[in-house]
Amino acid sequence: MSSILPEGYQPPVHVGVIMDGNGRWAKKRGMPRKFGHREGAKTFRTITRHAKALGVQYITFYAFSTENWKRPKDEVDAIMDLFEKNLDEVRDFIEENIRVRFIGDRSMLNPRLQEKMKGVEEDSKDFDSMTLILAINYGGRDEITHTVRQIALDVKNGILQPEEVTQELIQSRLYTEEIPDVDLIIRPSGEQRLSNFLIWQAAYAEYYFTNILWPDFTKKDLEDAVIAYCERNRRFGGV
Ligand code: IPE
Ligand code: IPE
Ligand code: MG
User: CA torsion sign, 161 to 162 to 166 to 167?
Assistant: First the structure.
């Protein structure tokens, strides 16, 4: 348990972060949107480290959605370049005993980026201080479709019986596999929606919205979100 939180407060096991507001942050400063993404990447590193200090065990960052391909090509290219540069810095997390995982459909990403992703996952797989999950070309509906297709194939081939298709089985075949459900979803920038993030896993998540734009999001903002979470009463349908 961390000493940063008030006595008796249990941090969420799994935090999800929708890193939103980079474009508006840049626009406010009269700069191209990609500057906002670059600044947002710095926030991502600070918040990852602080989540670990708070005792969070899993943190998932929504970095690029299956819908974000709709953006102008130069913005998409700038974001992809940033991922590649950032992956080299994500390697530093390995020294901090952090396991790194990626979720999403990788097949549409540049092969060199895919190689780097595989390398980071492989080199960090035995670390256990925290799991950092990056959602890149991720969409909740895409994930569920991918899972259903896999299961359908197994049923067709006689490997699975229809009655063996349980919630647990579906869960184990999502991109998140063994990662526990998300407990707290933080969305900065004032938008109050999920935008196709972890839709299965968020069935009982708590939500925390703030108007702060992601590049301005601080360690204190993370603490505020975690404390708000700790003070809620989760019932999961019970009393
Ligand atoms: C989030 O910031 C980053 C990505 C979706 C890649 P935005 O780029 O959506 O920023 P706003 O919402 O336009 O301000
Ligand atoms: C959600 O942000 C996706 C990521 C942060 C990666 P968007 O900016 O794409 O979401 P919408 O379009 O406002 O719903
Ligand atoms: Mg946005």
Answer: positive
